[in-house]
Write a structure and sequence with these properties.
The chain is of the alpha/beta class. The protein is built from 16 helices and 14 strands. The protein is 40% helix and 21% strand. It has a 7-stranded mixed sheet, with helices on both faces. A 7-stranded mixed sheet has the order 8-9-10-12-11-13-14, with helices on both faces. α11 crosses α12.
Length: 373
């Protein structure tokens, strides 16, 4: 091994470099090879598939292509499914792949086979890249994969999220005075979710030896920045920071998990469907997403690195409470995070209450809605 190779090896912990490259390639619409011993799967985002590419893949592996779809998308295609599945493509057909993977009017047109481990890894790659979770996949022997194609092992891909939690670290911090919270520090963490940064906003001077008020807030460009009436996110963001500042301080974790972890592009696709009458969760299901793609294990690690062991959580989402407890934090209380009810967000809020079990009480919202936020 050359000296340069030895240096590079210092930066490739548990295959993270290979996964980072695979994420970049797949998101750019180029094929990636996922390897498991002597077997490999060439995978391509369906959005990047066209007739020319489908025909070329069929030449190297005739009649072996398959479309891997998550359970949510299969349900929208007319099946009663709780597990992902694969549809065979004996003849290359980009239009059929688009219909099954992306179209609202799509309906299943062939038997659906159970997925294998490589298929599961392909769906994980799609989730990490924040593209539509429909994967055009072609199995091939590992020995036939060209050296120029980016490769990643199944084991490294499936371990990636956990490795990112372990690797998350503080990369910068500075005081940033805010309206309603002049004594505030922003602490930036690198890692946790792919190649993105996360932010902990320390409001006031909370005593970390006692239970600390915290909120885990997933980024919402439309609500947080532009004041969208379709959600209550902006109100929750500013309202909780203000309450922390008026109380004993606290920490708001601002997490790069737009659209319940689906990404901004898919969020806008879901919004378009909602404008046509779809419920927020049904719209996500049409796109192939389940109720919530977010994970909060890295958020718990952020709190631990800041020295927090016991928390008072400001949330309406029971999943966040369970995630913090599972990560070993002591959740001593939970309190609601109120926003304003609008004509545009009432159906959204009711759906979160009825379908995802969020603690939402409309009467309490009216009584406690933040003012001047």
């Amino acid at each position: 091994m050359s000296d340069v190779s030895q240096i590079l090896g210092l930066f490739d912990t548990a295959g993270e470099l290979a996964v980072d490259r695979a994420i970049a390639e797949y998101r750019a619409g180029r094929p990636v090879a996922i390897l498991q011993n002597e077997e490999a799967l060439i995978v391509l985002n369906v959005e990047a598939l066209d007739g020319r590419v489908a025909a070329a893949l069929d030449k190297v592996a005739p009649a072996r292509a398959r479309l891997v779809l998550p359970a949510a998308r299969l349900r929208r295609l007319g099946l009663d499914r709780t597990l992902p599945g694969a549809v065979s493509f004996p003849v290359p057909n980009a239009e059929r792949a688009e219909m099954l993977g992306l179209k609202i009017e799509g309906r299943i047109d062939a038997p659906v086979a159970p997925v294998v481990a490589l298929d599961e890894a392909a769906l994980e790659l799609a989730r990490l890249t924040l593209v539509t979770p429909a994967v055009y996949a072609v199995p091939m022997p590992t020995s036939t994969i060209p050296a120029s194609m980016v490769r990643v092992t199944l084991a490294d891909l499936m371990e990636y999220r956990a490795s990112q939690v372990r690797a998350i670290r503080i990369v910068g911090r500075a005081p940033v005075p805010l309206e309603f919270a002049a004594d505030t520090e922003f602490v930036v963490f690198r890692g946790g979710e792919g190649m993105r940064d996360q932010v902990a906003i320390i409001v006031g001077k909370p005593d970390f030896a006692k239970p600390v008020a915290i909120r885990m807030h997933s980024a919402c460009l439309t609500g947080d920045l532009f004041g969208s009436l379709k959600c209550d996110c902006g109100d929750q963001l500013r309202g909780t920071v203000q309450k922390m500042a008026e109380g004993e301080g606290g920490i708001l974790l601002y997490l790069d998990q737009e659209g319940r972890g689906n990404g901004i592009a898919n969020k806008m696709r879901a919004y378009k469907l909602q404008s046509q009458g779809w419920d927020t969760y049904d719209a996500d299901e049409v796109l192939g997403f389940g109720l919530d793609q977010r994970r909060f294990d890295f958020a718990a690690e952020m709190l631990k690195q800041l020295g927090v062991a016991s928390v008072k959580v400001m949330t309406n989402n029971p999943e966040k409470l369970r995630a913090l407890e599972a990560a070993g934090l002591d959740v001593v209380s939970d309190n609601r995070a109120y926003g304003r009810q609008t004509a545009e967000n009432v159906r959204y809020l009711a759906s979160k209450r009825d379908r995802a079990g969020h603690f939402i009480d409309f009467e309490a919202m009216v009584a406690h809605a933040p003012v001047n936020v």
